[in-house]
Amino acid sequence: MVGQLASRRAAGVILEMIKDGHIAGRAVLIAGQPGTGKTAIAMGIAQSLGPDTPFTALAGSEIFSLEMSKTEALSQAFRKAIGVRIKDFDSVCAPDGDDDGALTLTALKKYEVGELQKRKEVVHTVSLHEIDVINSRTQGFLALFSGDTGEIKSEVREQINAKVCEWREEGKAEIIPGVLFIDEVHMLDMECFSFLNRALESDLSPVLIMATNRGITRIRGTNYQSPHGIPIDLLDRLLIIATSPYTEKETKQILKIRCEEEDVELSEEAHTVLTRIGMETSLRYAIQLISTAGLVCRKRKGTEVQVEDIKRVYSLFLDEARSSQYMKEYQDSFLFNETQTAAMDTS
Prior knowledge:
Elements: H1 5-20, E1 27-31, H2 38-49, E2 55-59, H3 70-80, E3 82-93, E4 95-99, E5 104-108, E6 110-111, E7 114-115, E8 117-127, H4 128-136, H5 140-146, H6 154-170, E9 173-177, E10 179-183, H7 190-199, E11 207-212, E12 216-218, E13 225-227, H8 232-235, E14 238-242, H9 248-261, H10 268-280, H11 283-299, H12 307-316, H13 320-329, H14 338-346
Parallel strand pairs: 1-11, 1-14, 2-10, 10-11
Antiparallel strand pairs: 3-8, 3-9, 4-5, 6-7, 12-13
Helix pairs in contact: 1-2, 3-7, 4-5, 9-10, 9-11, 10-11, 10-12, 11-12
């Protein structure tokens, strides 16, 4: 990653606490302007945790579905982010086989001290959601592959929680608190935030990481405004990591890395112009111009993107500010604009 040193240090502290298991049931909020690397920080945490730690990512808009309730969708996401490492021992006798060419006869070779046996430790790592699905119906194992899990009764989850806690006390299982990442958390409504408040108090709760790019805005489902569109009582539980805008040097370095990823050669002058565009408009807009400028360069049989290629695609594709200015100038020519609506209301 490039830049965001303070945010990355804070994420590093969170990462170490997750590895040590000292932050289970906690919540972290990554807040900042669009295009400042909030999702990248969360994905970096996921990559650093490795494959053994469960990591579940979803957007706030994915919670709303006609197939299941909002709380059920959040419950399944929470259960997916909690792993259970189950240990089992298989006693395998060492065989002594005689091969006659067509059939292998296997017999136990006995010694004076008794039969030679081996104990093999088998470790299975599954999520609580997978256990829920398997035990929720007669053919629940097939539902894991089809994805048609449906709503799971709370009684089934309570029985599974009790059994997992029993295994943990007996040393047969180990609970692995994972990470649940909710992007665009401001899209959740008041009922979802109330559920998160209660779920974080549970004994079996993962680390909750949320990201938002909103300032003081209305909480969805209410008429009240709050920082980041999150209720104050939930904000009080969060560790908030703030991301800052990139500097010109960092923007130039990010664009250089992106050019290498997309296999586009830029001249030094074109790189400087593209960096200035990224500072004046947005980093995402400048990144999108790389591939289009490379296509224009190949169209003219060139091998290196020049300033003229950047200027051409800049004139063809509008950024957010120029698009807004265009709408203000020609809003009367568009259908259902606010000016026409206001005129109809006054008449």
